[in-house]
Specification:
Elements (H helix, E strand, L loop, with lengths): L7 E3 L5 E3 L3 E2 L5 H14 L3 E3 L7 H10 L8 E6 L6 H14 L7 E4 L6 H13 L6 E4 L3 H9 L7 E5 L7 H10 L2 E5 L7 H6 L1 H10 L3 H11 L3 E2 L6 H8 L8 H8 L15 H7 L1
Parallel strand pairs: 3-4, 4-5, 5-6, 6-7, 7-8, 8-9, 9-10
Antiparallel strand pairs: 1-2
Pfam families: Aldo_ket_red
Family: Belongs to the aldo/keto reductase family.
Organism: Levilactobacillus acidifarinae DSM 19394 = JCM 15949
């Protein structure tokens, strides 16, 4: 049996990152500070935000108030598409640092591969060299876009954060991340609006009962056992504790294969080759 200790992955630049983190997407400003404080209390040390989430300041307030030392927290933010030029990206990242009340960021991602994201990435490379960013990466990049930005830039992305859950397991993209040496990170690891389907799925429930766990814990365990970082979100402290309590058991290969069969290989939102993504991002 595994012990209840947070496991980490080592990124391609040698930085260590927790396998389970806490995402603050769609958490209201009025609630965000306390929610992040609760997450840190529950044992989370990876906090994932973004400029587009409009709650960086509240995350920063929580980081100031918590007893957890800053060096023990892995803090991620993302550059939004409106900031995709060299000067705008650089200025926006420095502004994010002010909002987050920190003099460095552990990880900064290009949020979407739209606009002049190459220039934004060059700004991130320079901030990385200056020591203001400990690692740089990408989000929502297809395998082709990921391979492109890796091949034609000085610094390889450490991470590609993409939609990944039981119904969209991203096997092709996962294989290419492993091939290129980029860490896979899952947003929406509990399939967001489809979480009820996970909780009611007969096979997942049966596996959960065998391990004295919940279906949600099985869903998260499945991906961390694939080596994928997950960033679930919950507003309730007890659920936060449940989501992080997945290091004291392991799924068998038979159980992993059973869960693999749930893959529909389809996004809940829009495929990465769908031009509607541009309209969604700019709305």
């Amino acid at each position: 049996m595994r012990t209840k200790i947070m496991e980490t992955v080592t990124l391609n630049n040698g930085t260590k990152m927790p396998l389970v983190g806490f995402g603050v997407f769609e958490i209201k400003k009025s609630e965000c500070k306390q929610v992040v404080l609760n997450a840190l209390k529950a044992g989370y040390r990876l906090i994932d935000t973004a400029q587009a989430y409009d709650n960086e300041e509240e995350v920063g307030m929580a980081l100031q108030e918590t007893d957890v030392p800053r060096e023990d927290i892995f803090l991620t933010t993302k550059v939004w598409v409106t900031e995709h030029s060299y000067n705008k990206a650089r200025a926006s990242i420095l502004e994010s640092m002010k909002k987050l009340k920190t003099n460095y960021l552990d990880l900064v991602l290009i949020h979407q591969p739209l606009g002049d994201y190459y220039s934004a990435y060059h700004a991130m490379e320079d901030l990385y060299k200056e020591g203001k960013i400990k690692a740089i990466g990408i989000s929502n990049f297809s395998a082709e876009r990921m391979a492109d930005i890796t091949a034609f830039n000085e610094i390889k992305p450490v991470i590609n954060q993409v939609e990944t859950h039981l119904f969209f397991q991203q096997n092709f993209l996962h294989q290419w991340m492993n091939k290129i040496g980029i860490q896979h990170e899952a947003w929406g690891p509990l399939s967001q609006r489809r979480i009820v389907e996970i909780m009611k799925n007969h096979d997942v429930k049966e596996i959960a009962d065998k391990h004295h766990k919940t279906p949600v814990q099985i869903a998260l365990r499945f991906n961390i056992q694939r080596g994928i970082v997950v960033i679930p979100k919950s507003m309730k402290l007890e659920r936060m504790k449940e989501n992080i309590d997945i290091f004291d058991f392991a799924l068998t290969e038979e159980e992993m294969n059973t869960i693999r069969k749930l893959d529909e290989n389809k996004s809940m939102w829009a495929g990465y080759d769908n031009p509607e993504i541009v309209q969604m991002a700019m709305s």
